[in-house]
Amino acid sequence: METINNTEVNSMPRIGDIAPDFEAVTTKGKIKLSDFAKNKWIVMFSHPADFTPVCTTEMSGFAVRKPEFDALNTELLGLSIDSVHAHLGWVQNVRQNTGVYFDFPIIADIDMKVSKKYGMLQPNESETSAVRAVFFIDPKKKIRLIMYYPLNVGRNMDEILRALEALQTSDKYKVAMPLDWKKGDKVIVSPPKTLDELNARIADDTLEKVDWYLAKKSIN
Ligand code: BEZ
């Protein structure tokens, strides 16, 4: 295991890896990742600490927009290096203050086991808190997209949902998504790989073509 500032850290997981398995205690009981949310997508995210301002805005954002994650067949899974007791106190505090209820499991990673496995512990940023990470895990438990944000900048919920929908749409239609793609926009068809495909592409009047290698189609 690598050591940074005398803190042991695992190597970072990569896009395309099977999500490292773990068992953990959460605000909704014990979970084992490999048994959690079968046949669903998982958005697993860490926050630096309970009862802190930026984290409260982010967790509230996940809670308020949970119906949109539900509609995308996606379970939310939070994490911080805090105890379940602290998590429960924070959930109750936010519910009392704002009426927003964090109705998804939050891992109590007090021994940092999960944080270290997922590269969430980045000791040059903080030796005691997880950074703001987001892992998009598909129903085969493959990591499909990773975001890391520092302690002082909150994430963008629109972008998290947009990226999730882009991944799912890309899988469904076997297409790629252009800059700033959002639901309803045209998608990129993969470039031709043979001369026959090139000729078919040139002849296809249904596509919006910038050139033979950059063409878009509507999927609506
Ligand atoms: C926050 O969520 O506000 C925060 C947490 C840890 C360090 C800095 C800010």
TrEMBL record:
Q: What class of enzyme is it?
A: oxidoreductase
Catalytic reaction(s) noted: a hydroperoxide + [thioredoxin]-dithiol = an alcohol + [thioredoxin]-disulfide + H2O
Where does this protein chiefly localize?
cytoplasm
Q: Which intervals hold domain Thioredoxin?
A: 13-169
Q: Matching CDD domains, A to Z?
A: PRX_1cys (cd03016)
Q: What are the record keywords, sorted?
A: Antioxidant, Cytoplasm, Oxidoreductase, Peroxidase, Redox-active center
Gene3D superfamilies annotated for this entry?
A: Antioxidant, Horf6, Chain A, domain2 (3.30.1020.10), Glutaredoxin (3.40.30.10)
Q: Where does substrate bind?
A: R132
Q: Which GO terms of the molecular function aspect are on file? A: thioredoxin peroxidase activity
Record localization: Cytoplasm
EC number annotated for this UniProt entry: 1.11.1.24
Provide an example Pfam family for this protein.
AhpC-TSA
Q: Where is the active site?
A: C55 (cysteine sulfenic acid (-soh) intermediate), C55 (cysteine sulfenic acid (-soh) intermediate)
Q: Which family does it belong to?
A: Belongs to the peroxiredoxin family. AhpC/Prx1 subfamily. Belongs to the peroxiredoxin family. Prx6 subfamily.
Query: What this chain does, per the record?
Result: Thiol-specific peroxidase that catalyzes the reduction of hydrogen peroxide and organic hydroperoxides to water and alcohols, respectively. Plays a role in cell protection against oxidative stress by detoxifying peroxides.
Q: Which HAMAP family match?
A: Peroxiredoxin
Its protein name is Peroxiredoxin
Q: What is the scientific name of the source organism?
A: Maribacter orientalis
**What lineage does UniProt assign to this protein's organism?**
Bacteria, Pseudomonadati, Bacteroidota, Flavobacteriia, Flavobacteriales
